[in-house]
Amino acid sequence: MRILVTGGAGFIGSHYVRTLLGTDGPETVTVLDKLTYAGNPANLDTVRGSDRFAFVQGDVCDAGLVGELVAAHDQVVHFAAESHVDRSILGADAFVRTNVVGTQTLLDAALRRRATFVYVSTDEVYGSIAEGSWPETDPLSPNSPYAASKAAGDLLALSYHRTHGLDVRVTRCSNNYGPHHFPEKVIPLFITNLLDGLKVPLYGDGLNVRDWLHVDDHVRGIELVRTAGRPGEVYNIGGGTELSNRELTDLLLEALGADESSIAYVEDRKGHDRRYSVDWSKIEKELGYRPAKDFTTGLAETVDWYRDNRAWWEPLKAGVRAL
Ligand code: NAD
């Protein structure tokens, strides 16, 4: 089984590749990654020596390169994306290019090859929900340019199944956390700020709610969908820990020995979705998925990882500040 993993130098993609190659499996993996600011070759250091691993630096919008690569693989697991909502508010151009045009470029190549296509989508495509949780059948109603570009890719992927019968499977997960997470996202940003004795910028009233999913659990969910999911189906993947940003901040302050005085309330993100909540009973019933990582343990391990790996995040953070 030859798998092309796009965006495999990023947070979740690299975790997926390290997990897949960390066991004696039949899979070989080629990572296609443009190495944008979010792609980090160091995330793949532990698998670089494997004879089941290859790395290609390139753009998912490059139809020639994508065509050649997909032709030599059986399956595509598509993580590559511009992934930061705040950046999409500042400018949506790269989001439309990579998340929409890049996805369509990959889908066309997968269609020619008849390769199975796993599209890693997000709960943000559903919009915002005050109560209850979204089943996969709910209509998509994205609000940020990031979410809209992911929804476009998600719907395109499903259209290639419905129109052409391509084996497409879509996963929609909640907020991931864990090691190797780029320090512009809330958990690694807050941890690294607190490690440096800085304040943490909390948006608005801090009452926006997210469901937290450990990256180990997400990767397990994706593997269940890749290996046992049904073509044309969407699977929500949740973590089972809903917290307001204020509650999350309090846990991080406590873990790092800080108090409320380290919070800087800042102007809310434009169009900030209030609450996300996916109903993940479908993947539980069909594929036996359940999140296994308890949030308290997962968060403590994540804090320890950032404490122990300053050399990984310090240069990235300096680069972000210089933007
Ligand atoms: P990330 O930003 O850490 O990594 C994205 C990777 O894609 C980087 O390695 C980057 O270099 C690469 N990339 C970007 N543009 C590219 C292009 N044009 N061609 C090739 N490679 C390109 O993102 P992540 O957090 O690992 O997210 C992975 C996927 O999961 C994304 O599709 C994202 O939308 C989705 N997702 C993430 C979360 C989350 O909480 N992080 C939640 C839901 C869904």
TrEMBL record:
EC number: 4.2.1.46
Protein's UniProt keywords contain NAD: yes
Catalytic activity: dTDP-alpha-D-glucose = dTDP-4-dehydro-6-deoxy-alpha-D-glucose + H2O
Enzyme class (EC, first level): lyase
One Pfam family hit: GDP_Man_Dehyd
Taxonomic superkingdom: Bacteria
Cofactor section: NAD(+)
Residue span(s) of domain NAD(P)-binding: 4-302
The family this protein is said to belong to: Belongs to the NAD(P)-dependent epimerase/dehydratase family. dTDP-glucose dehydratase subfamily.
UniProt-listed PANTHER family: DTDP-D-GLUCOSE 4,6-DEHYDRATASE-RELATED
Protein name: dTDP-glucose 4,6-dehydratase
Gene: rfbB_3
